Every structure is written in C-alpha cells, then in structure tokens.
Amino acid sequence: MSCSTSSGAALAERSVLMPPAALSGDPAVFGEYLRRTGQAFLLLGELRDQRARVRFSGHFEAAEVVWDCEFVTLQSEQRRQVRRACRELESLRSFIDIGAPAESGVPVRVGLDVARIDRPAILKMMVMMRNYKRLRRGRHEFGLPYRGA
After folding, report:
1. Are both 104 and 69 inside the same structural domain?
2. Residue of 85, 48, 54, 80 whose CA lies nearest to 69
3. Of 73, 100, 126, which residue constitutes the final position of a domain?
4. Hey, which of 50, 53, 99, 102 would disulfide with 76, CB 3.0 to 4.6 Å?
5. Contact 43, 56 (CB under 8 A)
6. 140 Cα distance to chain centroid
7. What's the pLDDT tens digit per position in 86-106?
C-alpha cells in the first residue's frame, strides 16, 4: 500500500508491501496505478533533504516510459563525486586504455609513473606496448598504486 502525502505523491515505506502495479515497469500498468490512487508520482522510501527516489511516467524516444529516478541536489552530487574521486586517486595505477579501431588507427591512452614525457619515456612506453602479449580493448591497470611526486 502507499500513504498519500499532501504533495500529490504516494509515499512507499520500505516496511509496507507495495502492490505490483506500483513497481511495474509497464507504462500502462503503472499509469493506471497512479490514476487509480490519484497521485502524480510515487515516492519510494523517505524524502530526504538532499535526495529522493521517485517513480513517474513520461515520454522518451517516442514511447511512454516509467522513470525510476534518483533525484539529487547538486550539493549532494558534488559531495558524492568528491568522495569517488578521492577513492579513485587513492587506487590510481599505471594503465593502458584501448578503444575501438578507427579510420586513423586504434586509439590508446597510456598512463605510466614517469617523471615527465620525453623521448626515453616514449620509447619505453612503445617497447612495453609491443611486448605486452595479452592486450585487448578496454582499460588495463598494473603496478603499485601511485603515491604522487
């Protein structure tokens, strides 16, 4: 069941069993649920100051869809991205990132723990690339985490 809120939304508590129609990805079924309950959207869980999980119907790519949305403030998103960036920086290692072949060749991005990019570093990188036997598309990381200069 859902609890009606004064904002025209149905609030779905975690402890309350939701009818299947409320969680349906079928736009017709979910739309009928909203119409039957008189709600504009379904709020899943508690409404928090910086984020909410909301289900609502709409149009996308010329079709009716059910949007299953995590709605966040930019302040909340900024904090999340900073935390993620810190974790990624802590685990940064040497890498080879190979893309799909293109007309101009196979794009690759290489990151190595070298003091600077100069001719010896370029030659070292080329030898490494040519000697690496299991290269495939995607990102390959190796070596110890980078600890900075």
Report:
1. no
2. 54
3. 73
4. 50
5. no
6. 20
7. 766 667 788 989 988 877 778
The span from the CA of 113 to the CA of 130, in Å, is 18
Asked, for residue 69, whether it belongs to a domain, the answer is: yes
Burial environment of residue 18 by CB neighbours within 10 A (0 to 12, 13 to 18, 19 or more): middle
- What is the domain range of residue 108? 92-142
Six token digits for residue 85: 């960036």
The Cα–Cα gap between 141 and 131 comes to 16
Alpha carbon distance 65, 13 (integer Å): 23
Task: Give DSSP secondary structure letters for 10-70.
Answer: EEE-TTSPPPGGGG---HHHHHHHHHHHT-SEEEES---SSEEEEEEEEEETTEEEEEEEE
pLDDT band at 56 (very low <50, low <70, confident <90, very high): confident
Mention every residue, 6+ apart, whose C-beta is less than 8 A from residue 63.
27
Counting beta carbons within 10 angstroms of the beta carbon of residue 113, is it exposed (0 to 12), middle (13 to 18) or buried (19 or more)? middle
